[in-house]
From TrEMBL, chain B:
Sequence intervals crossing the membrane: 32-49
Full protein name: Twin-arginine translocation pathway signal
Pfam families linked: MoCoBD_1, MoCoBD_2
InterPro entries, A to Z: Ald_Oxase/Xan_DH_a/b, AldOxase/xan_DH_MoCoBD1, AldOxase/xan_DH_MoCoBD2, AldOxase/xan_DH_Mopterin-bd_sf, N-heterocyclic_Hydroxylase, OxRdtase_Mopterin-bd_su_IorB, TAT_signal
Keyword check for Electron transport: no
Keyword DNA damage: no
A Gene Ontology molecular function term of the record: oxidoreductase activity
Residues in Aldehyde oxidase/xanthine dehydrogenase a/b hammerhead domain copies: 230-308
Length: 189, 765
């Protein structure tokens, strides 16, 4: 973890287009992205972390910066349906792939409706400060897609990558169980 | 200011040079009246940050055509919108929902109908008490918030009474309408707005008694959940204002280090870089985009001086404190501790520096333009930021406008304005709005830590095994004396005056004559235990480290010391730790209440624990509330595993019991992180921790089951955000004693247990 990234979380992968000591304009490429079902294109070097492309180039600020080194999960998005830490994902690596951010999580729901997971979060009073919650929800959404009725052990295995400084873990667990129609301990309801 | 050779050691002059004085009094009044009312209906929570572009600005509530505004909090519009300006910070503690419930209750509108927005700190809201901290919001707001809403309700009813020619007390309000049941008619609030404006504002608005509450006291849903699960909620870091630049701060690598020389030539050539600016707190690399600033920052070559504490280290400090015998000042003196004899037990306890580490790293946007300074930042005290920025700019405080969006956690850290001040400096330097975002490493190394401390405690058990005397002596760094650092007494104050202020602040809080500093001993004084002879004292010390309020503050240190030591005393007296405490709490019913509650919940003494599991108990009174925990824990191949926590809290009255429970759960996990691993260490003036790999946080799989019981005592309301933090470390330490036989007198517990086990191995145990 953290390998290939400097202290600022900047991706320093040996990208071919980026000679050391600065970025000539040819390093800036048009990268075509598919974000929340929409085709977007950005003019950035390929090795810019996806997190900052989402937040700054596309103004999708629901995806959060917490550590920049794949340590906290705040920046989690889906790439082709799988959870990825956008702070350590070079934008060039996900060109053309389907990226879903928290803003796109409700896609497929009727207008203005939340997903069952988000609804369970609201009903369970899960968020406190809320800063980690987009990342938590993206992790949880990826989990239940893979594993529709996760056990506590499966929840632990997936969700332990996402830090919540406010300590909402017990409620996240309950909300995942509630959203997947299970009782508190993970058994069938 | 961007010259490589500028010496920031001369920061007072330097900042004057980069920060021309704003012209006083030239700020157009309109500016200050720009409020944050949502211009369109349907937006329930107005996070409002993006609306900062002038054209997107919405008018001041005063200017909403025909609105009724009995006070600065409540606005009713002719089209039936009811708005509430929530004057505190929402940092997760749920006060926004709590206050909205109080307003909805008294104003007789649905919680969902209320549009809650964050007022900006500007002239209109200047008189507001907007600082958020000390678990005080609900405590101090419980009556006034309801009065503000009740005033509106009474005036709307009076307006209807006037219209219909009936007595006001024949009418009542319900669901946003005034009803005349006798005559079967009603009017919506919006319809009554014009007439309500003509009514007298009641001097003493009539608020409901608790029995009449319909909403308050229920486990209502948080009003901020929906925007927080969709990514819509705007935090400081999400603020975007037109023409904004972004900056990485390169902070000094050692305490107080200043730039000696700097070569920014490479960085300046990199794409998007706008400027490289030396500030009194390090170097700001300003670019069009944050990712550009991030790539340029490593290209800036900086030589730093040795700073203000080149040889400072936390290990040295430990040794110094252990050797120090300063008597200090007495905070509590009852009976005569010296006249007691019996079995004497003495111990020394230590706690480390701790970082708050909210999930949202510190950040701020500042736009210094003409004679206005506008700041957007998650903060616990807009006035402090106004003050600090005004000091920097040499302008009136009122020329500084502070927007407070959602806070991505704070825990005390966002009481301090460093990031905002950095943004002010940079914006002034580049002439554009600047957003400063600290890296996680900036945040962890950014100082403002909970103080490191060393405590001595001594108890005397009489012949019957009762605690006859308790002596407690804290050595801790004064938070108040530390306040001068980092911007509150900023460099524009002439150095000599600044020094004087700093020097005198320390003395004020040291002398115990002018201002008593209660923080170093809180949690050790006012104990509920019947101990006839008690002496509590403290001696402050100074270091180059800047210290701060950290969730539960002095209690987080002293409750650990007192309650872990109670366990030592109980064992020395050969008594059960619960019964030992219980016997001493017979005259402290609320202490006793929470203690007995956790004993009952955990079936204390009645249930056999699994092999290897230890169980500990601790109790405290903090921030007006009473809290006890029982913690079960075991050690698995050297690793501490926390199995279960039983918690009881008596906060007198819970405005929203479910949110109180969530605060207890969160406090327990926050406190377990600190108790198990939390430690900021320094060597040669440099902080050794950086990101979450070296400053570890509790994660989902490590979090125990937590069972919470709220006790309702119908007494005064107490705080809920902090009290449950305090008894966690001692309850866990006590559980680990039972599980392992090791007394852990130094936090954090995991490395202390490792050391104890290593010592035991060496001793051939
Ligand atoms: S910001 Fe990406 S994992 Fe923390
Ligand atoms: S809700 Fe605050 S960090 Fe998770």
């Amino acid at each position: 973890m953290g390998k290939g990234f400097d202290a600022f979380g900047l991706c320093t992968l040996p990208a071919k287009s980026v000679p050391s000591g600065g970025l000539p304009s040819k390093g800036v490429l048009e990268v075509k992205l598919k974000v929340n079902g929409e085709e977007r294109s950005v003019d950035v070097p390929e090795d810019v972390p996806l997190l900052w492309v989402l937040r700054e180039e596309l103004e999708l600020t629901g995806t959060k910066f917490g550590c920049g080194q794949a340590l906290c999960g705040a920046c989690t998005v889906h790439v082709d349906g799988k959870a990825r830490r956008s702070c350590v994902t070079a934008v060039g690596d996900v060109a053309g792939k389907a990226i879903t951010t928290i803003e796109g999580l409700t896609q497929g729901e009727a207008d203005g409706k939340l997903t069952v997971l988000q609804q369970a979060w609201v009903e369970g009073n899960v968020p406190q400060c809320g800063y980690c919650q987009p990342g938590q929800l993206m992790m949880a959404a990826a989990l239940i897609r893979r594993c529709p009725k996760p056990t506590d052990a499966q929840i632990d295995a997936t969700m332990s990558g996402s830090i919540c400084r406010c300590g909402t873990y017990p409620r996240i667990r309950s909300a995942i169980h509630a959203a997947t129609g299970q009782s508190e301990d993970g058994g069938a309801k | 200011m961007s010259e490589a050779t500028q010496d920031p050691a001369s920061s007072p002059e330097a900042s004057k040079a980069i920060v021309p004085l704003l012209r006083r009094g030239r700020v157009a009044r309109r500016r200050f009246l720009l409020g944050m009312l949502a211009g369109t209906a349907g937006l329930t929570i107005y996070g409002g940050v993006r609306a900062s572009a002038d054209e997107a600005r919405v008018p001041d509530p005063n200017d909403v055509e025909g609105a009724f505004r009995p006070n600065i909090y409540i606005t009713v519009t002719p089209d039936d919108r009811v708005l509430y300006g929530f004057p505190k910070a929402e940092m997760g503690q749920g006060t926004m929902t709590g206050f909205a419930m109080l307003v909805a209750e008294e104003l007789e509108v649905g919680l969902d109908e209320l549009e809650v927005f964050f007022p900006i700190a500007s002239k209109e809201y200047d008189a507001l008490e907007t600082a958020t901290g000390g678990s005080t919001s609900i405590v101090t707001g419980f009556v006034p918030v309801r009065q503000a809403a009740a005033a509106a309700r009474m005036m709307l009813i009076a307006a209807a009474a006037e219209r219909w020619g009936v007595a006001p007390d024949s009418l009542h309000a319900k669901a946003g309408r005034v009803l005349d049941d006798a005559n079967d008619r009603s009017a919506s609030y919006g319809e009554l707005v014009e007439a309500a404006k003509q009514q007298r504002v009641p001097e003493a608005p009539v608020i409901k008694s608790k029995q009449d509450f319909k909403l308050v006291g229920t486990p209502a849903r948080r009003i901020d959940s929906a925007p927080k699960v969709t990514g819509e909620a705007q935090f400081g870091i999400d603020v975007v204002v037109p023409n904004m630049t972004r900056a990485v701060m390169i902070h000094p690598p050692r305490i107080g280090a200043a730039v000696v020389s700097l070569d920014d030539s490479k960085a300046r050539e990199m794409p998007g870089v706008v400027d490289v600016v030396i500030t009194p707190r390090g170097v700001g690399v300003v670019a069009e985009k944050y990712w550009q600033a991030m790539r340029a920052a490593p290209a800036v070559e900086i030589e730093w001086d040795e700073g203000t504490g080149p040889s400072f280290g936390t290990e040295n400090l430990r040794a110094e404190l252990a050797a120090r015998t300063d008597e200090g000042h007495v905070a509590e003196d009852e009976g005569d501790v010296d006249a007691v004899s019996g079995t004497v037990l003495e111990a020394e306890y230590e706690t480390p520096y701790l970082s708050h580490s909210p999930m949202e790293p510190m950040n701020a946007v500042a736009d210094v333009r003409g004679d206005v300074c506008e700041i957007w930042t998650g903060n616990q005290g807009p006035s402090a930021i106004q003050e600090a920025a005004a000091n920097q700019l040499g302008c009136d405080r009122i020329q500084v406008i502070v927007h407070t969006p959602y806070l991505g956690g704070a825990f005390g850290r966002r009481s301090h304005p460093e990031a905002a001040i950095e943004a002010v400096w940079l914006s002034e330097a580049v002439g554009r709005p600047v957003q400063v975002i600290w890296s996680r490493e900036n945040d962890t190394r950014g100082h403002r830590y909970r103080p490191q401390s060393h405590n001595r405690i001594k108890g005397t058990l009489d012949a019957s095994g009762e605690l006859a005397a308790l002596e407690f002596h804290a050595q801790s760094q004064s938070i108040f004396a530390s306040l001068d650092a980092g911007g509150l007494f900023p460099p524009v104050i002439p150095p000599r005056l600044r020094k004087w202020l700093a020097g005198n602040l320390s003395r004020l809080f040291d002398s115990n004559t002018l201002l008593a500093d209660t923080i170093p001993t809180e949690g050790a004084t006012h104990l509920g235990y019947a101990i006839p002879n008690r002496r509590v004292s403290y001696a402050n010390f100074h270091t180059p480290v800047v210290v701060s309020w950290w969730r539960s503050v002095g209690y987080s240190i002293n409750t650990y010391v007192v309650e872990a030591f109670m366990d030592e005393l109980a064992h020395a007296a050969e008594q059960d730790p619960y019964e030992f405490r219980r016997a001493m709490l017979q005259d402290s019913p609320r202490w006793l209440g929470v203690l007995e509650a956790v004993a009952e919940m955990s079936e204390w003494g009645e249930r056999e624990l699994p092999e290897g599991v230890g169980r500990g108990i601790a109790v405290c009174f903090a921030f007006g509330s009473y809290c006890a925990h029982v913690i079960d824990a075991h050690v698995d191949e050297g690793t501490i595993v926390v199995d279960q926590v039983y918690s009881a809290l008596d906060c007198g009255y819970a405005v929203n019991p479910d949110l109180v429970v969530s605060q207890v759960e969160g406090s327990v996990i926050f406190a377990l992180t600190a108790a198990l691993w939390g430690e900021i260490t320094m060597k040669d003036g440099a902080v050794e921790q950086g990101n979450f790999d070296t400053y570890r946080m509790m994660r989902m799989h490590e979090a125990p089951k937590i069972e919470v019981r709220l006790l309702s005592s119908e007494e005064d309301i107490g705080g809920v955000g902090e009290p449950a933090v305090a008894p966690v470390a001692p309850a866990l330490a006590n559980a680990l004693f039972m599980a392992t036989g090791h007394r852990l007198r130094r936090l954090p517990l995991q490395p202390e247990l490792d050391r104890a086990r290593a010592r035991a191995d060496q001793g051939g145990k």
